[in-house]
């Protein structure tokens, strides 16, 4: 081989490896959420009811993601990200099994019924980075599935842990769709201190109130209405904030506590299931189990 040619190839290889390290680095940054073990095994005890499913990022499964998944056993990779190909399969599964995907509002109304017959699903999305409007939304639209999404109002259009969050124009576009319900996910209290969600620390009540008001002000400013539903970051609730929000317009707040919504469930704090590669098989089993 010619010497210059060799040098050129070596140079290209070096550039490629630096680039892939960079992608690898930003990919890992996405994972800086607390480790949770949400397999939800054994929690789907009722045959009939409503399961609220929760998604975060719907990532394109490029070779980088695949490579990392193969070599890195870090549970968080599997916990908060669902590959786009999996998401498509999951939505198809719901359609093929005639699972009734309902809106959050419909779910709240159904908890007041004397009984709930059949199996229902509410689809929820937290944080709202760009993969929600770019990847998830077209699929939801295709199947005409109602969906609910929770916005971190102070992070819109910004970088968060290596993810680029959706813009207000994206969020407006989604919110305009009759399939959509929009909630808040704090204004700027979606982070951790010493590996603890900030809402689980002794944060001042004043900060909690101010943050909540800011999130509602942003909703009003950008979407023309306040939200009446809320999702706790990392699924970690705060008693003071719950009481305060209940007195100031929030009718229902979700965590990530296991369970099925049934008749008589408390609509103020229904259970919710984080979708990951351990919980989804249990969910499929729930749908497929004929009792
Ligand atoms: Zn979140």
Automatic annotation (TrEMBL):
- Name of the featured protein: Polysaccharide deacetylase family protein
> Where in the cell is the protein located?
Secreted
User: Which InterPro entries has this protein been placed in?
Assistant: Glyco_hydro/deAcase_b/a-brl, NODB_dom, Polysacch_Deacetylase
Q: Which Gene3D superfamilies match?
A: Glycoside hydrolase/deacetylase
Source species of the chain: Weissella diestrammenae
Enumerate the GO terms in the molecular function aspect: hydrolase activity, acting on carbon-nitrogen (but not peptide) bonds
GO CC term (a single one):
extracellular region
Look up the record and give one Gene Ontology term from the biological process aspect. Answer: carbohydrate metabolic process
The chain positions of domain NodB homology read 119-291
Query: Does the keyword Signal feature in the UniProt annotation?
Result: yes
Task: List the keywords (alphabetical).
Answer: Signal
> Which Pfam family is one of those matched by this entry?
Polysacc_deac_1
This protein's major location comes to secreted
